[in-house]
Amino acid sequence: MKLSELIQTLPFISLTEEAGEIEITAIYTDSRQVTPGSLFICIEGFQTDGHLYVQDAIEKGARVIIAEKEVESKVPVIYVNDSVRALAIIASAFYDSPTTALPLIGITGTNGKTTVSYLLDAIYNHFGKKTGVIGTIHNKVGERLKETNNTTPDALILQQLFHDMRNSGVEQVIMEVSSHGLDLGRVYGCDFDTVIFTNLSQDHLDYHKNEFNYFFAKSQLFSRLGNTYDGRRKYSIINADDKYVGMLKKTSAFPTITYGIDSEADVMADDIELSQDCTIFQLKTPVGTVKITSRLTGKFNIYNMLAAASAALINDIPLHIIKDTLQVVPPIPGRFETVDFGQPFGVIVDYAHTPHAVKNILETCKELKTGKLYCVLGCGGDRDPAKRPLMAREAVWHADYAIFTSDNPRTEDPRAIIDDMVQALDGYEQTYEIIIDRKAAIEKAMSIAEAGDLVVIAGKGHETYQEIAGEKYPFDDRIVAKNAFLNKEF
Ligand SMILES: CC(=O)N[C@H]1[C@@H](OP(=O)(O)OP(=O)(O)OC[C@H]2O[C@@H](n3ccc(=O)[nH]c3=O)[C@H](O)[C@@H]2O)O[C@H](CO)[C@@H](O)[C@@H]1O[C@H](C)C(=O)N[C@@H](C)C(=O)N[C@H](CCC(=O)O)C(=O)O
Ligand SMILES: Nc1ncnc2c1ncn2[C@@H]1O[C@H](COP(=O)(O)OP(=O)(O)OP(=O)(O)O)[C@@H](O)[C@H]1O
Ligand SMILES: N[C@H](CCC[C@H](N)C(=O)O)C(=O)O
Ligand SMILES: [Mg+2]
């Protein structure tokens, strides 16, 4: 594509006629990947600054540089005031604005995004639509799975994915939109049709600094709905039981549908029965009421089902398809995943990594066990330290006994993370212990649990690695628990 076409919507750019004719073969933000004939965009990051790698990019064949700060270059440089926004505009243009031709659902909120995306994927597939999914566990184009580093990838990867989806005949895209994704401009240029809010509670304060900024980042998904008034039907779907419902309704540029259990809402759940392996409730919608028996457990999963059902209904998926799907959809990997290897007690692996999620999972489990409730829990390194004591407090408040251990320490000292967790647990010393090594902590829980007890292994869910001192090692809570039990002597 010609450079002049790629940058035509960037403000205040003047190009010589000759430069405008340059054919751009690819776009990169990482100099290490640059190929001949490409355009390199300098992005200032958290670890380093893309402006430092201009020479590297040129040596590898970059023909044009986009920069925010002055750089030395023998090839044309286009200066912009916001490289991240320029990246989104250029990537969208390079890949022919794929989201204008792809119905796009965006899901945001502290907890539940992955679960809602799985549910919607299953509903759309059951309805016969080919889907694309972008989220924490993987990205998916039809049946093809692609690995991912981020819940919401940067604009370049996103537009490449959308392009791939459009070329592969995807009819519906379902995407998790993280607060980082919104705040760091990764979703500039995405034309959302339906946006969903699950809930908001404490997380990521290391990045956002306070809850208002965190909320503001999330709320952008709702104001961003208003990008185009081209006749496409657009809706926001909001949790009526969350304290932010009022503010989000005001922010939303298009009609709002609410869902809830306690507050009056358009889509509601009633007559709820929870057990360890199923959930029963009446799904009440403006087009009828149906009874749902789902394999997803926990009150919080009813909210996830309501969110998915609301988004599907408003997009004309018949209620019977929604019901049939919710009845058969299997538990989401690492989300309230029951691990059964013949042991006489229950084991649940769950991705709870916020105070609210730890509280929810343990409150649900309290109702489901007949014996004691154990919780194995750690907190991630290089992530919001403010949530650590709150997560630990929820664990000792709601479990009979907690074992505090490592999650992904990343670049932090594992012991220091646990010290942060236990700093405000005076008076609870008899109800927890510390075992830094996660495998040993799980083994301990497996060795003390007895018939009727329930062990919740929280924080890592589906993850198949543990990141220690910047290195990723194979680690899967489900396998470690199983091996610990099978090697156990009774
Ligand atoms: C803190 C953060 O968000 N970092 C993201 C960021 O990386 P960074 O800022 O560290 O990048 P950097 O290493 O400083 O590099 C700056 C620039 O120089 C370039 N560079 C670098 C070296 C070189 O030799 N040549 C070169 O050109 C890089 O390609 C980059 O363009 O840009 C990368 C590419 O887009 C992201 O993958 C990376 O996410 C990291 C992996 C991360 O852990 N992010 C977390 C905090 C995150 O975003 N989480 C959210 C929410 C999760 C949830 O709750 O669901 C998510 O959406 O994943
Ligand atoms: N609707 C909900 N309300 C509160 N907690 C929930 C809800 N749904 C899931 N959880 C809890 O949060 C954990 C993570 O769920 P899920 O992966 O669906 O959320 P997410 O928003 O995608 O998280 P992440 O931001 O890390 O990707 C679950 O394992 C469960 O403990
Ligand atoms: N998306 C979340 C995942 C946290 C999972 C937990 N296992 C950790 O490593 O902290 C984050 O990046 O904050
Ligand atoms: Mg997720």
Automatic annotation (TrEMBL):
Known EC number: 6.3.2.13
Chain residues that bind ATP: 109-115
GO cellular component, one term: cytoplasm
Biological role stated in the UniProt entry: Catalyzes the addition of meso-diaminopimelic acid to the nucleotide precursor UDP-N-acetylmuramoyl-L-alanyl-D-glutamate (UMAG) in the biosynthesis of bacterial cell-wall peptidoglycan.
Annotated positions of the N6-carboxylysine modification: 218
Residues that, per the record, bind meso-2,6-diaminopimelate: 383, 407-410, 459, 463
Mur ligase central domain sequence ranges: 107-312
Record-annotated Mur ligase C-terminal domain positions: 334-461
GO biological process: cell division; cell wall organization; peptidoglycan biosynthetic process; regulation of cell shape
PTM summary: Carboxylation is probably crucial for Mg(2+) binding and, consequently, for the gamma-phosphate positioning of ATP.
Alphabetized PANTHER family for the sequence: MUR LIGASE FAMILY MEMBER, UDP-N-ACETYLMURAMOYL-L-ALANYL-D-GLUTAMATE--2,6-DIAMINOPIMELATE LIGASE MURE HOMOLOG, CHLOROPLASTIC
Keyword tags: ATP-binding, Cell cycle, Cell division, Cell shape, Cell wall biogenesis/degradation, Cytoplasm, Ligase, Magnesium, Nucleotide-binding, Peptidoglycan synthesis
Protein name: UDP-N-acetylmuramoyl-L-alanyl-D-glutamate--2,6-diaminopimelate ligase
Main location, first listed in the record: cytoplasm
Pathway(s) served: Cell wall biogenesis; peptidoglycan biosynthesis
Family membership: Belongs to the MurCDEF family. MurE subfamily.
One family name in Pfam for this protein: Mur_ligase
Motif (Meso-diaminopimelate recognition motif): 407-410
